[in-house]
Amino acid sequence: MEQQEVVKKVLENPDFKAMAKQKSRLGWSFSFVMFVFYVIYILYIGISPETFAQPVAAGMTTTIGIYAGLFIIVFAVAITGIYVRKANGKYEDATRKVVKEVMNHE
Q1: Closest by Cα among 63, 42, 41 to 54
Q2: Average pLDDT of 41-58?
Q3: What's the predicted TM-score (pTM) here?
């Protein structure tokens, strides 16, 4: 079977289509959540910069803004890690299963 024919059959497979839709939905959901967190962070800086300039505790030089910024960075890394783990695990396994199924039918 030609490679293009295999690709076409994989893309037309209902299980593959369902998996691709689910993967896309997950990616867009995570992107939306990250976007919302980042917009809230930026808006809060614009609306109330004095809040972010306050020290975490009396006598400390570290401000609330430093921790908020670190949270955004750690959150972005975590959410990306979750997506990559799912994409390379569950969704990759589903893709391999469909490819194997298509290859065995010919």
Answers
A1: 63
A2: 93
A3: 0.80
